[in-house]
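User: My advisor, Dr. K., asked me to get a structural model of this assembly before our group meeting. I'm new to this, so sorry if the format is off. These are the inputs:
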Amino acid sequence: MFLHEFQAKELLARFGIPVPKGRVAASAADAERVARRLAFSRFAVKAQVHAGDRGANGGVLFAKGPAEVAAATAHLIGRPLVTAQTAPTGQIVRLAYIEEAIDVDRLLYVAVTIDPTEGRLVLLASAAGGDDVEQAVSRNSAAMLRLPIVLGKPATGDELLALATRLELAPALAAKVARLMAQLVDAAIDCDAQLIEINPLAVTPLGELVALDAKMQVDENAMFRQPDLENLRDVEAAETGDPLELAAQIHQINYVRMDGEIGVVVNGAGLALATLDILGDCGGRPANFMDIRTTATSQDIAYGFGLILSNPRTRVVLINVHGGGMQRCDTIAEGIAIAMRGAERTLPLVVRLAGNNADFARTRLTASGLTVQEARDMRHAAELAVAALHKDAA
Amino acid sequence: MAVLVGPETRVICQGLTGRAATYHCARMMAYGTRLVAGVTPGKGGRRHLDVPVFDTVAAAASATGADASLVFVPPVNAAKAMIECIEAEVPLVVCVTERVPLLDMIRVREVLDGSRTRLVGPNSQGVLAPGIAQLGVMTTVNARPGRIGVASRSASLTSEVVAQLTAVGLGQSTTIGVGGDPVHGLSLADCLDLFAEDPLTDGIVVIGEIGGTEEEEAAERLGALRLAKPVVALIAGRNAPREKRMGHAGAFMSGRGGSAIEKSEKLERAGALSAPAAYLVGETMNQELSRRRNAAG
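Assistant: The format is fine. Below is the predicted structure of the whole assembly, which you can bring to the meeting.
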């Protein structure tokens, strides 16, 4: 689960990490009131979306005084912000964060994240903070320092100080950075964060540290022990930017909307990826990615199928099910039959069933009165789906 | 014979008394797996599925001589259950639990390091030695005993590939699901080692997908192994939806995962054959084995 910048900063502040003072606003009028109360000489007005690279894409504006803050907020809110890290259509901005604009001397980079290859948390630090950090590191990989974190044996103050010193900082500043690193690691472990990135970590002309931006992603699998963080979930700005995708999650379905015309229903993520590959090879374009989890009931599947029908782009549906040990073909057939009974439109259905209870599923589908084209294998299913689309177009 | 498990493998199940565990363990026993005990804290002394239930892994292992554990414990306690096995020095642990917190898995990996335990999973369908033993939740309908080893990140694609292999007359020595979570135990590369050493495995199928660096590691291992056995690779996700990225940190991970095509190419350079598509894995292996037979004969 991604947090907004303002939520992440509030959490980091609790661990002692210095952040600029600020408040969140949902409208221009709201922002003006906030700015009047905060009374800074210069403000940063920042679009709150779950994506980075906002600064380079007009998502961060600077303003002097409440009137300018209101104007900047009005400019951001209600519009999509497109960055390298959003979908091509961008994310609609619904909240702006109004904070004190900070004078900076230097920009550093610090982060804690999970290195899946090593199966560890790692602390990352670079003297080349800011939007260009990736470029700086791609030119010279030594520009990014790494320290593996062992949970059973936390990094000592000396180790962190040694790391901070390698950022070419004066001793007093290095000590501050080392302390901040320890706080960052504590925050990551305490919050079950899989990512906390402070970029940039500003050094002010007075030699103080300020986390100018913060990105934070909390492990979905740990939400059961992070009830306070669950309350921070912004459903409308879900990871995917698509509320339907979050709704699908609740129904044990991984759903991602795509640009094509062929709706795809598959059990299992790997098989779903493979189905999209074969569909592409046959000249078809998927309208979605859908992986039905093994825990989905026929009602969940009916919901998922309803999502596919409700996508106006979808003109053909390809169903590829390989019944496994946990999920049987007939559960999926049942779900599809339920969805089609309540559907407002019918679509050509291409079905490929194999594995556990495939025959039973066939009987189910036939008994429900649905017209389906049955495919021999995955390739055949993709071909039939593409042919059905062309027939539909003709 | 098979890797990891054999006809003598004595299996305990942690969480045996749960509903899903009961269902799957009954299937496993019907398949011929030697399930010798269950472990459910607080339920020691009972019997379930006609085997004794113990409070701890240590008690179950010492009473039954178990050498493998299937972890069927909910996410909240799954890491604790895995660590209990590692500390009791159970040689093989297979964890099917989905949604184990990442930090918990990092802790498990720290305990696993240098231990005598091999961990498969979590979020794995398990290990199947067709005709011999089933430790997991996979379907067995299309599996047949034979000489192809299958190592996979995807349970659904394993079912698909096993059916294809059987359809072309190739049985399987063992199928291993390494699990779908980013931090887990046995890797695809480790599976290559196991199958490389197994005299009863003649060919290896590696099933990967986008995300992570398992396939890159497997390619590296494969290059070092210089296997005489054919390896067929399938990497799913050439047309996957673009993954959303937050921040820069992901770009700084060591050997960060490449695209499906990059992964396939790395495996090819290391000596693997890429299956041209997911429906052609069985066919690709069959043709390669015949080609080699003809070349030799």
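One thing worth pointing out at the meeting: Chain B has nine helices and 14 strands.

User: Perfect, thanks a lot.
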